[in-house]
TrEMBL record:
Amino acids binding ATP: K141
Keywords: ATP-binding, Nucleotide-binding
A GO term for molecular function: ATP binding
PROSITE patterns in the record: PROTEIN_KINASE_ATP
Compositional bias per record (Polar residues), positions renumbered to this chain: 25-34
Keyword Nucleotide-binding: yes
Name this polypeptide is given: Uncharacterized protein
Residue ranges of coiled coil: none
Record bears the keyword Nuclease: no
Region of interest (Disordered), ranges: 1-56, 74-93
Domain of life: Eukaryota
Length: 163
């Protein structure tokens, strides 16, 4: 009897009945633990995030609150400038001159009628009284000091602007 040199019989490789802990890392199937956490879909986590008892505060509310607070402390002569242009028309209707011009303004310029309004102030016609350009018509933009202070104060209250 000779010795037979056939192929050695290899043991049959079978899938283990219980997968190793690393199996889920390489398997395309979802692990049972992941699948049980709310379905594992892309929408599951955001849905849980938005189930907060209160929605996050809107920055618009903060801005509106600051504006309302500021508006409450506005003096009567400041309220003469509307937020939207053209409400009172042109030509000086409702023009409030109850504020201080720069020193020497009255001696240099003769202020005329209002020609238009913006968010911060209004524009008037004026005429140079003396010196270079005497009698030359010029536009004068009037921004009440209190309005500037109000805007600066509002900007400082904003959380995203460093003072
Ligand atoms: N030189 C000018 N000649 C004629 N009209 C003018 C002149 N300058 C301004 N105006 C009128 O006055 C209006 C207001 O001008 P203003 O410069 O105050 O506007 P604005 O820049 O929108 O204002 P704000 O910066 O306060 O928002 C203009 O829409 C325009 O009708």
């Amino acid at each position: 009897m000779g010795i037979c040199y056939g192929k050695p019989e290899l043991p049959e490789v079978r899938e283990p009945t219980t997968p190793s802990p690393a199996h889920s890392l390489f398997s395309s199937k979802k692990s049972p633990s992941v699948a049980s956490e709310g379905g594992g879909s892309a929408t599951a986590t955001p849905r849980r995030f938005f189930k907060l008892p209160f929605p996050p505060p809107s920055p618009a509310k903060h801005i509106r609150a600051v504006l309302a607070r500021r508006h409450g402390s506005v003096k009567p002569n400041e309220a003469a400038i509307p937020e939207d242009e053209g409400e009172e028309g042109r030509g000086g209707a409702g023009l409030d001159k109850n504020f201080g011009f720069l020193k020497g303004f009255a001696s240099k310029y003769e202020i005329g009628e209002e020609v238009g309004r913006g968010h911060f102030g209004y524009t008037c016609t004026a005429k140079i009284k003396k010196g270079d350009g005497k009698d030359q018509p010029v536009p004068v933009k009037v921004i009440p000091k209190a309005k500037v202070k109000q805007i600066l104060s509002f900007l400082q209250d904003l959380p995203f602007i460093a003072s």
